Amino acid sequence: MLFDLDGTLLPMEQDEFTRGYFRLLAKKLAPHGYEPKQLVDAIWGGTAAMVANDGRESNESAFWRRFAELLGERVDRDRELFEEFYRVEFAGAQAFCGFAPEAREIVALCKAKGWTVALATNPIFPQVATEQRIRWAGLAPEDFALCTTYENIGLSKPNPAYFAEVARRLGTDPADCLTVGNDAEEDLAARDAGMDVFLLTDCLINRRGRDLSDVPHGDFAALRAFLEAVE
Question: What is the pLDDT of residues 73-105, one digit of tens each?
Fold first, then answer.
């Protein structure tokens, strides 16, 4: 059982969260000579490197290599500033998120059924930031058998190989997995890895306007009904 985090277990409007998160980061780094637009553009460049990563290096390594190419070697000297941001100031990004008590209930339901539960959030954040977002959702890292972060994997959504790798680490066949997410592109890629998918529509992202009639989907109540019907 694989759960996405942002927009799934942790409600959010993705663009609002991203803008708020970047404002916090720019505020932290501006006194150290980082121009906000240049900083944000470099973060997007590093993110693109993680999305393109083929597993031969960690996403962490892919990000920092590209980030340094765009901003110069100073980022290596200032890396502690970035790490401190995620330990301290990143907590302010909770203000750009919602809360759904159903998230904890759904995870508990899956565990009560004896299913192995993994947090398959797109691994473009450090572990410390991922664990904070898990707690904002009313859950704990220990609720999951695996949580993907940029340190521990070298693949990202929407690459189907990401989902195959998560299944491999869980010791299961992708055909025996269900992915719950909210992104009609990123999370539906799990189908190409052989998994079933349920799209949670509370914070649905469907930028291409994909027809979802062939995809199980709905709100938390619909998800609960769907899971309860699974043997």
Answer: 899 999 999 999 999 999 999 999 999 999 999
User: So what's the pLDDT on residue 9?
Assistant: 98
pTM over 0.90: yes
On the 0-12 / 13-18 / 19+ scale of CB atoms within 10 A, 215 is: middle
CA distance 198 to 136: 22
Measured CA to CA, the distance from residue 20 to residue 29 in angstroms comes to 15
The fold adopted by the segment(s) 2-12+98-229 is: Rossmann fold (3.40.50)
105-110-114-118 Cα dihedral, nearest 10 degrees: -110
Q: Which amino acid is at 129?
A: A
CA nearest neighbour of 120 among 44, 188, 209, 72: 188
